[in-house]
Amino acid sequence: MQAEIAADIHLEAIEVLLNHILYVRGLYPSQIFKKRRVYNTPVFVSIFPPLNNYLASVLRSARELLIRQELQCLVVIVYQKENEPLESYQLHLKSLEAGGKSTVEDPHLIEFEQQLRAAIYKLSERLKQLPKLPAGSCQFKVHLHTTQDAFVRFSHESQYQEFPWLQAQTAESQPSQTISLLPLATVENVGLKMQAHILG
User: Fold this and answer.
1) What residue numbers bound the domain in which 29 lies?
2) Among candidates 139, 163, 149, 187, which has minimal Cα distance to 14?
3) CA 115 to CA 102: how far, in whole Å?
4) How confident is the model over 92-137, as pLDDT tens digits?
5) Domain holding 104: CATH number?
């Protein structure tokens, strides 16, 4: 399978998970989300243009890093104060070696879809158990973890200058009390292994 096609398949899953986190955790009013069926599962997706523009820029950058196999982790950080994260949602991404599952074994992506459907349901169950966030005062940001070489190369490409990335401070990327609730799901297919964790 071409790297571009695999990246697009995984980006769709990441987009669904990002929207789902924002909706379930109440970071935006529920009215800006529209119900859709993805992976034969009802999910809520943003219809708010400023949020959609930000997510599209993040996903465009993530796509380029995925194609190059340089995206290690995507982290959604929820915070009130800039350097004091309340919650962190990590999607660990790892390219599979030649022995991993491939689309040859799952040509119609049925198993992949089932794994993602299970991930969405598990995510919903875990998020329901978390305490409510302070109303109206929380924000979020997305960190893309990659190599130093990839960051330098990426930051000099003209097509990404409209949405520049900054190197995050090390202390900022982890909550002060890091408690792994448990892995939400492991999706292992289409040449990529994706694991989701909640830290808070």
Assistant:
1) 3-163+177-199
2) 187
3) 14
4) 877 654 444 444 567 778 888 888 888 888 888 888 888 888 877 8
5) 3.30.900.10
CB of 74 closer than 8 Å to CB of 91 = yes
Which pTM value belongs to this model? 0.80
Give the pair of three-digit tokens for residue 1.
């399978």
**172 assigned to some structural domain:** no
Which two tokens mark 44? 């809520």
Q: Which residue has the tokens 């900022």?
A: 172
Neighbours of 156 (CB within 10 A): 9
**How many domains would you assign to the chain?**
1
In the three-class reduction of DSSP (H, G, I as helix; E, B as strand; rest coil), residue 99 is classed as coil
What's the Rg (C-alpha) of the chain?
Answer: 17
Q: Which residues 6+ apart lie within 8 Å of 78 measured at CB? A: 25, 27, 85, 86, 87, 88, 89, 133, 138, 139, 140
The amino acid that residue 108 corresponds to is H
**Distance (Å, whole) CA 95 – CA 71:** 9
Rounded-to-integer distance, Cα 48 and Cα 31, Å: 9
Q: What is the DSSP letter of 105?
A: T
Give me 86's structure tokens: 């309340």
